[in-house]
Automatic annotation (TrEMBL):
Coiled-coil ranges (or none): none
Any GO BP annotation: carbohydrate metabolic process
Domain Glycoside hydrolase family 20 catalytic: 180-511
Reaction(s) catalysed (UniProt annotation): Hydrolysis of terminal non-reducing N-acetyl-D-hexosamine residues in N-acetyl-beta-D-hexosaminides
Organism: Mycena albidolilacea
Family: Belongs to the glycosyl hydrolase 20 family.
Residue span, Beta-hexosaminidase bacterial type N-terminal domain: 28-155
Protein's name in the database: beta-N-acetylhexosaminidase
Length: 715
């Protein structure tokens, strides 16, 4: 629905924030160069524009071919413009293309595209815009794909009309500065459904990010549990579901089966991500953060009093880890995987280094894949060192690794420095981690006052940073952790934290800071971000809907029977009003959507249900449908849960933003909140934000009166 809303805005004359029709707009990430052909007529994109793929290269590219990318591009173009009659993709040559209508031509063969390191890349592209053609020439199939993202962003930022959308004639060229540009999601301490992972890939791809690091095994940290007798009660998860007869089948308890990815699930997510130019790098974290394994195999595989750390000297430990990789390695399409390998016992440095090297060799021998590890302070005796073929993902300066030393020693490095790049779901209140990337640091966080870039590891000492051209600097990954677990956030709240952060991170990892004259300023970024966020095709993480003229999505004076609406889930801000009179009963006869009824135990039932949430009668609790956790309504963040009176008519008005949701009842304000355990040291109350459950009214098991139902956009 979001894309329809955006295309309608285009044809109502959405003006660019940076220029007039038929000029090339600044976009995210910035394009390295564009030269206008001021005397040439513009290219006009319309519903009759033909997308043609060079037949000489149509099947070139792996894992996605040029024509595969072209078909996804066409879907995105239809979504963004509303040109539902856009012709299907054809293969052909530029010379033989029909001249009756302007065409978009995708081909390969662009040369001279190198990362800042000087290494040649297939991610670069050239483009030439003439009145009859918009030609994108990639240095590889992926480069042509990024060229289509450039075109789509120009569509989003350019005024359109019923006749079409005009693009200024001219030519340009673009190449990313670094090979690794992406983000890490902690899916171990918070469950996310496969569709959410796929949507994040699609959104990130719009900003030319190409790596999705999935942290898939871990546990909550609480020293009181880990060091005590109840350590098995601490939340932990391994997200890849083994086959039923697998030697590692017991790694996933039956109770967690529904919060794991099957091989088919994960294969489908990888395919969707690949179709949008994004590679998933899976991580199974050992020998630290290994509570899922010791819960399964027993405390003897853990170190004494620290069952989250594996005992690498136990004869069963390394064979167990190899068996886990044996099961899941065939699932993974990426040429690399992460074995985690952070925050182990420094006193066991030599054993740790031996483990990393053994696993690197084993995974390479079994699958041909390389490995990554988190930078960590495991110095050992100096007699052994981690193999130079292992990429180190730095995250903690100076405590756990000093990147310039790693680079000097010949290690390839990915920058995930926490002072710049770490977020945490419902961040702790000591300011350790951020809710969004710090814009000040992103734009002016380098020692010289310039912006952050992958070559910047600290803002205090230029001597501990490196040059953008360093051949061993692979790039950067930002990270969003879920240290406080499933109940700290909903998936959409995680997206709200990521959305703007991914866009600014995309600019900085594509262009850097101070390298190109065409890089965006913060004012330029701020001026276009909201437009591009709303326009990003292929997903609807904003849960946006087409807004009626009065902003009222629906209004029902009375709802005596279950009702299905034309909306599924509506993102904040919104206001949901209703009057409810629940029954006091132990069993009720509930009408079903097929006209029949059934007798069920009465807990009040569900008033509203949608893709992302449900609103229960009991306590007016919101439920996150992905984790099935219910969040009570309270008068204060930690007060008693609200009780909706039975056999009494109560009017409720729910107001939601991206950071909180509250209800007005009888002139009093109540809040939906959660409590999170911060490092096992204290409990912290936090507000919750929910999308409106808009698909079903009187959804499940509700008996009573319901009326005055109204859903309005805006809080």
């Amino acid at each position: 629905m979001k894309s329809t809303q955006f295309s309608e805005l285009c044809f109502l004359g959405l003006a660019s924030l940076f220029g007039v029709t038929a000029s090339f707009q600044p976009q995210i990430p910035s394009v390295a160069s564009f030269t206008a052909a001021s005397n040439d007529p513009p290219f006009v994109l319309s519903s009759s524009t033909q997308i043609i793929v060079d037949s000489a290269f149509q099947n070139t590219g792996s894992p996605v071919s040029l024509i595969g990318y072209a078909n996804t591009f066409r879907e995105d173009l239809v979504s963004l413009t509303g040109f539902t009659e856009l012709p299907g993709v054809q293969a052909g040559s530029l010379q033989d293309a029909p001249s009756a209508a302007p065409m978009i031509f995708l081909t390969l063969g662009a040369t001279g595209h190198n990362y800042y390191s000087g290494v040649a890349t297939e991610e670069g592209y050239d483009f030439a815009i003439r009145s009859a053609s918009y030609v994108i020439k990639g240095s590889g199939a992926l480069g042509a794909w990024w060229g289509t993202r450039t075109l789509l962003q120009q569509v989003a930022l350019t005024t359109g009309s019923a006749a079409g959308i005009s693009f200024a004639a001219g030519s340009g060229s673009d190449t990313p500065g670094w090979e690794v540009r992406g983000f890490m999601l902690d899916a171990a301490r918070h469950w996310f459904e496969p569709s959410f992972l796929a949507d994040l890939c699609i959104y990130a791809s719009f900003f030319k990010l190409q790596t999705f690091h999935l942290h898939a095994s871990d546990n909550i940290w609480d020293q009181n549990f880990i060091a005590g007798p109840n350590w098995r009660d601490l939340y932990s998860a391994f997200r890849f579901r083994p086959s039923p007869n697998s030697p590692i089948a017991g790694l996933v308890p039956a109770a967690q089966q529904n919060e794991t990815y099957t091989k088919d699930d994960f294969t489908a997510v990888q395919a969707t991500c690949a179709a949008h130019g994004v590679t998933i790098i899976p991580e199974i974290d050992t020998p630290g953060h290994s509570l899922p394994i010791t819960k399964w195999k027993g405390p003897e595989l853990g170190l004494p009093d620290t069952p989250d750390l594996l005992n690498l000297s136990h004869p069963e430990t390394i064979p167990t880890i190899k068996a886990i990789w044996d099961e899941v390695l065939p699932w993974f399409a990426a040429p690399e995987v992460s074995i985690g390998a952070d925050e182990y016992d420094p006193a066991l440095g030599d054993v740790y280094i031996g483990f990393v090297n053994e696993l690197a060799g084993y995974i390479s021998q079994k699958s041909g894949k390389a490995i990554r590890v988190w930078g960590t302070n495991e110095p050992g005796s100096g007699a052994v060192s981690i193999d130079k073929n292992v990429t180190v993902q730095h995250w903690d300066f100076p405590g756990d690794s000093i990147p310039v030393r790693l680079l000097e020693q010949g290690y390839r490095v990915i920058n995930s420095e926490q002072q710049f790049l770490y977020l945490d779901g419902k961040t702790s209140d000591n300011g350790q981690f951020l809710v969004e990337l710090d814009q000040g640091l992103m734009w002016a966080g380098a020692p010289d006052g310039g912006g952050w870039a992958p070559n910047i590891f600290t803002r205090h000492d230029a001597g501990n940073n490196t040059a953008p051209q360093n051949p061993l600097l692979r790039g950067a990954l930002m990270a969003i952790w879920n240290d406080w677990g499933n109940n700290a956030t909903t998936p959409l709240e995680i997206y709200y934290q990521l959305a703007r952060s991914l866009a600014v991170f995309a600019e900085k990892t594509w262009a850097g800071s101070g390298v190109r004259d065409t890089q965006l300023s913060q004012d330029q970024f701020d001026g276009i971000y909201e437009t591009l966020n709303a326009a990003a095709p292929g997903q609807n993480l904003n849960r946006a809907v087409v807004s009626p003229s009065n902003n009222t999505l629906f209004a029902y004076p009375s709802v005596p029977q279950p009702l299905k609406t034309s909306y599924d889930s509506v993102g904040p801000p919104y206001t949901l009003r209703f009057t409810v009179k629940p029954l006091s009963a132990t069993q009720i006869s509930v009408p079903l959507f097929d006209g029949s009824s059934m007798l069920v135990p009465f807990d009040g039932g569900v008033l509203f249900a949608g893709r992302d949430s449900k609103l229960h009668v009991q306590g007016l609790a919101f439920e996150d449908t992905s984790t099935r956790i219910r969040y009570p309504l309270r008068s204060t963040p930690t007060g008693k849960a609200y009780v909706l009176p039975a056999d009494v008519e109560t009017t409720v008005e729910i107001h939601a933003t991206r950071t909180y949701t509250y209800a007005l009842i009888g002139g009093e304000r109540y809040w939906w909140t959660t409590e999170v355990d911060v490092w096992g040291e204290y409990m912290k109350a936090a507000n919750m934000s929910f999308a409106a459950p808009a698909r079903f009214i009187r959804a499940e098991g509700f008996a009573g009166e319901l009326g005055g139902v109204e859903l309005v956009l805006g809080a």
